[in-house]
Amino acid sequence: MNSMENREFAGAKLALFIDGRLLVIRRDVKPSLVWPGYLDLPGGGREGDETPEACALRETREEVGLALRADQLIWKQFYPEDPTPAWFFAAHLPAGAETDVIFGDEGQGWMLMDPQNYVGSDEAVPHFRLRVRDYLECLGEPPPSR
User: How many CB atoms sit inside 10 A of residue 110's CB?
Assistant: First the structure.
């Protein structure tokens, strides 16, 4: 584990692309939730002393039933004020992987959407829109016009 991973962090999120489309989760609408009803990404809070990768992979498995490997996480970035210290990852799966999704018990449902549409959506969790944009910019994709 490098010094970046030794940083305290609250959780991890994953921008998971299936055949170029982004897997998103519609958040529940509950008074206790931040961003109720918004479009979210797989991921969540850290448990115990798990690594950032383990957190992202566990949450993805719990939320959408997909068991990715750490070597499939092709991009990672630490955001110390997002609004809590968090890691953000990206991974790509081939076409057809959506047939393996088993939606968990958090959220209203899931869908695949064009990543540029997510970045430009007022329904997406605002700071996750920015994280997906950061990743797309690393790939050389221009941000959507608004």
Answer: 19
pLDDT(79) > 50 = yes
The whole-model pTM stands at 0.91
Question: Is the CATH number of domain 11-139 3.20.20.70?
Answer: no
d(CA 99, CA 116): 23
- Domain range annotation of the chain: 11-139
In angstroms, the CA 23 to CA 42 distance is 8
> Could you tell me the end-to-end alpha-carbon distance of the chain, in angstroms, rounded to an integer?
40
Mean pLDDT of 27-43: 96
